[in-house]
Each structure stands twice: as structure tokens, then as C-alpha cells.
Design a protein that fits this description.
single chain, mainly alpha, 3 helices, elongated
Length: 109
């Protein structure tokens, strides 16, 4: 086995672990804000690590994997932002310990 194959297998394993942790975080976190954080940050890191590992295992796939990685980098923050704005409009989901709401006087939301 070559060093590239071993590196790819390790990166795929690390990416899978991050995706597993992300899924557990979504299930176990207490409120929607923490779930959104777990779902966005760990999923992005896990997916990109997995894609890099696949690129090491199959170098001919690397250009396609780069496009998929760029799509993930661009869409995860946008989807997280959209979810945060939607949840903010539901008063029952607002955290009780919020000290100052910066968007309190935002009339465009």
C-alpha cells in the first residue's frame, strides 16, 4: 500500500468520525441554536475531510471533489443563516438567557 492510500483511508475515517459526531450533536444538543452549530461546523469539516480522503484514494476524481467541496463551503453558511433567521421569528425558540438581542428593532426580519 502506498502512502497516498493510507493517508486517504485515515482522512476518510476522520471525516466519518466528524460526521458521526455532528449527527450525535444534532440529536443531543439542548436547543436549536446549538443543534444548528453542530450541524453546520462539524458537517462542513467532516465532509471536506472525507472529500480530501477520497481525492487521495482516487486522484482522478479530485477535480469533481473540489467542485463538491466548494459547493459545501458556499452553501452550509447560507443554509445556517437562513435557519437562524427562521428560528428567530418563532418566539418560543428564543433562548431565555439572551441578554441583548441585536435584531430586536430590525423591522426587515
Amino acid at each position: 500500500m502506498s502512502i497516498l492510500t493510507v493517508t486517504g483511508q485515515i482522512l476518510v475515517l476522520i471525516g466519518g468520525v466528524f460526521l458521526l459526531i455532528s449527527g450525535l450533536g444534532i440529536l443531543r444538543m439542548p436547543d436549536v441554536w446549538n443543534r444548528m452549530h453542530a450541524g453546520t461546523k462539524a458537517t462542513t469539516l467532516g465532509s471536506l475531510t472525507l472529500l480530501i480522503g477520497l481525492g487521495c484514494l482516487r486522484p482522478s476524481w479530485f477535480p469533481k471533489l473540489i467542485i463538491i467541496g466548494l459547493f459545501i463551503i458556499l452553501t452550509n453558511p447560507v443554509s445556517s443563516h437562513a435557519l437562524a433567521r427562521a428560528v428567530r421569528k418563532v418566539p418560543s425558540e428564543m433562548p431565555r438567557n439572551l441578554i441583548h438581542d441585536d435584531m430586536e428593532n430590525d423591522h426587515d426580519s
